[in-house]
Design a protein that fits this description.
645 residues; alpha+beta; Killer Toxin P4, Chain A; Phosphorylase Kinase, domain 1; six-stranded antiparallel beta sheet; six-stranded mixed beta sheet; 15 helices; binds 2-acetamido-2-deoxy-beta-D-glucopyranose
């Protein structure tokens, strides 16, 4: 069996060295260079000259920005074969001089990773990380936990309670504070000298809810220390928390968090005391941690304990394991069939549920290596993760994240029809836009999806969207001529210039996105057969007619509760959707412009114009679509087969 998945950014070959060094004196102004975590990816870059030139230059940029009074900097260079994305952050209580000192220390410890394609150093005063792809919106990664310091000689329940309240308050307030950082103290009742000090901080590229999630996990982790340890930290990809009984920032640097605690639910204090009980608790935790780490690293199983998990790439799965997981690709395990291959649900040995996509790629595997490598490094919360792959004979099996809630298709037209409220629909629209913007503009290669439609938008447990099947169109064999691009879309969703002339650009996805948004708003299929004798119109035409006569609210799905949405919000979303469906291509916004329009409270500046829509072409396109879909059993059939027309 060929195992050409092996060159991936390897799983669990991550060297993680964890050092816990504690301050011997409670100094408050020092570079605070206790190295908490240092990790290098085991995979090396392929072109060290390109890599070092990017790394050196980004480090230089970051250093000069840190010296100009900033605490958080990202910098990337993607100009050559070795893209480098770097993030650095100092705790905001640090002086500029100390921040630079900490950064220099972090940089030198990261240099020890030589030409590894990813590395990080986390210190008390700052952190520094680089990767070969963007990780700026990574929040919490599985496997992170509290790093607990020395135990106090006696259990101090007063200290514990005070710290717990303080940390809980910080985890609630920090995401609401500009800069996503807070420092606070609390007097420890019953003692006359003691004060507890704590900070919480998120990467500033995280949205507020990402920061909240991250700190929630950090809070739960750090609480395991609080029973009898006087000094604790929680480290995660997107956030950091620390408390101590000894001051590590001066008391005039605290932030008044009380105003950020007033609204929102208050924590249930009854549930707080938990974790480890007993005098040797802290020691036991450390022992367990070391033991687990040791066992994990010996097993080369996925999942590292020290937060280096997102350095993982896809892993090699054995064909037999996948066969067993999917019960020999049994029909009842089939989740769906798409243009590229069937998808099966599987349960792997460790109990995790996966989705397995079975592609037939024939014998020409070399072409696919680079394509699969491209997909495998995509990390974004609105894009389905590739967990691994396996190839056997002419088959390529892609192992993907499993989404319990299935696809948007089911929620718009299937048995879950009508169960999404407006807020959920809006979140789906927003998340889908962000995922596409990432594929088009933020990832180091532009990936055009080509087949955005509801069945390719999957929903996680919180109904956040994750786009599936991106990059797979690139796996299709090219036309012999190379003049036109092979069509990999679905009529009705495909932009006219792509469906008719095979003209491919990012704006092809913008168009499909606009159509999907109209479907989400209306609950109607874009390619429903219009009954022309009854005056029916295709969805896009219908939307334009209503929009022009200011009757846009008539487009809204009747299953939506009118008290749960604001008229102007719906109008704006429809307006954006129509902008996306304009032709020529230049009239359509880019996906990052769409994200901006959606997140901006102001109104759309350049309303869409019907002059920019070629409904005649779309009707021809639609008629093709209708005759095709009618003749196929699967209404979702993609048009890959029809390229010869
Ligand atoms: C990466 O490079 C380092 C030092 O240059 C070397 O020790 C290590 O074996 C390399 N790792 C791989 C996977 O090639
Ligand atoms: C990058 O910086 C390192 C350490 O400062 C230095 O050894 C190396 O020569 C530099 N490489 C390039 C290409 O500038
Ligand atoms: C320093 O930051 C300020 C604003 O924060 C900016 O106007 C200025 O150009 C920066 N200077 C340098 C040298 O980057
Ligand atoms: C923590 O314990 C170590 C070893 O027992 C000791 O050397 C160190 O001074 C202690 N740190 C503090 C802050 O008490
Ligand atoms: C946490 O916030 C609550 C509500 O504002 C406040 O009553 C409480 O004293 C705070 N606890 C600590 C330890 O700061
Ligand atoms: C703290 O209180 C103890 C007795 O409760 C007292 O002996 C000690 O002097 C006090 N320390 C300070 C700094 O007030
Ligand atoms: C905070 O206090 C320190 C001395 O403890 C002082 O040097 C510093 O200027 C103060 N900072 C602010 C912002 O007041």
């Amino acid at each position: 069996m060929t195992r050409w998945c092996g060159w991936f950014y390897r799983p669990m070959v991550v060297v993680a060295i964890v050092l816990l060094v504690f301050l011997t004196n409670p100094a408050t102004s020092q570079p605070q260079t206790n190295l908490l975590i240092q990790a290098c990816s085991q995979a090396n870059v392929t072109n060290t000259r390109d890599f070092y030139s990017n790394l050196n230059q980004t480090f230089g940029t970051i250093r000069s920005q840190l010296s100009n009074n900033t605490y958080f900097v990202t910098s990337e260079l993607t100009r050559n074969s070795q893209p480098v994305y770097v993030m650095a952050q100092c705790r905001n209580y640090m002086s500029t001089r100390d921040c630079l000192g900490c950064f220099d220390f972090a940089a030198s410890s990261i240099r020890a990773c030589a030409a590894a394609n990813g590395a990080r150093a986390v210190l008390d005063g700052c952190f520094l990380r680089y990767e070969s792809n963007s990780f700026y919106t990574d929040g919490t990664a599985p496997g992170n936990q509290g790093l607990c310091g020395n135990r106090t000689s006696s259990r101090q329940s007063v200290f514990e309670t005070a710290v717990d309240g303080l940390l809980s308050n910080l985890s609630i307030a920090t995401p609401k504070i500009n800069g996503l950082y807070a420092a606070a103290t609390t007097p420890v009742a019953g003692t006359n000298t003691s004060t507890a000090y704590a900070i919480a901080q998120c990467a500033e590229t995280l949205p507020s809810d990402g920061c909240r999630n991250c700190l929630q996990v950090a809070y739960n982790n750090i609480r395991s220390c609080a029973t009898d340890v006087i000094d604790g930290r929680a480290v995660d990809s997107g956030c950091f928390m620390r408390y101590s009984g000894t001051p590590f920032f001066s008391s005039n640097q605290t932030i008044d968090i009380a105003p950020f605690l007033r609204d929102g639910s208050s924590r249930n204090k009854g549930a707080i005391i938990g974790g480890v009980v007993g005098g040797v608790g802290g020691l036991i935790i450390l022992l367990i941690v070391v033991l687990l780490w040791y066992r994990r690293s010996k097993r080369t199983a996925p999942g590292s304990l020290y937060g280096a998990t997102e350095l993982q790439g896809p892993k090699d799965y054995s064909y037999n394991d996948l066969k067993k997981a999917t019960k020999d690709f049994r029909e009842e395990n089939k989740l769906g069939e798409g243009g590229f291959g069937d998808v099966y649900k599987g349960v792997v040995k460790d109990g995790n549920i996966i989705a397995v996509k079975r592609l037939t790629i024939g014998s020409n595997k070399d072409n696919f290596e680079s394509e699969v490598r491209v997909i495998s490094n995509v990390h974004h919360r609105n894009l389905i993760r590739l967990l691994g792959c396996c190839s056997k004979g002419p088959e390529l099996l892609l192992v993907l994240e499993y989404m319990a809630n299935g696809s948007l298709e089911n929620y718009l037209y299937g048995d879950k029809r009508g169960s999404l409220n407006w807020k959920q629909r809006y979140d789906i629209i927003f998340g889908t836009a962000r995922g596409l913007a990432y594929l088009h503009e933020q990832y180091h290669v532009t990936i055009i999806h080509r087949d955005i439609k509801p069945s390719n938008i999957l929903l996680d447990n919180d109904f956040q969207p994750k786009i599936a099947d991106f990059g797979l169109a690139r796996l299709l064999p090219e036309d012999q001529t190379h003049i036109s691009t092979k069509f990999a879309g679905t009529l009705g969703y495909a932009a006219p210039e792509y469906a008719m002339n095979r003209q491919l650009s990012e704006k092809v996805d913008t168009y499909s996105f606009g159509i999907v948004v109209l479907e989400i708003v209306s609950g109607k299929r874009c390619n429903d057969v219009p009954n022309e004798s009854a005056g029916d119109q295709i969805l896009l035409e219908h939307a334009w007619n209503l929009y022009e006569t200011r009757m846009h609210l008539k487009l809204v799905d009747e299953t939506l509760d009118p008290t749960k949405y604001k008229e102007e919000d719906i109008k704006k979303v429809i307006e954006i959707a129509l902008m996306c469906t304009q032709s020529p291509v230049s009239a359509r916004p880019t996906m990052s412009e769409v994200v901006m329009l959606l997140s901006d409270r102001s109104r759309v500046q350049n309303p869409p114009s019907r002059q920019n829509v070629n409904l005649a072409d779309i009707r021809i396109d639609m008629n093709n679509s209708i005759s095709t879909t009618k003749s196929m059993s699967n209404a979702d059939a993609t048009m890959t087969e029809l390229t010869g027309r």
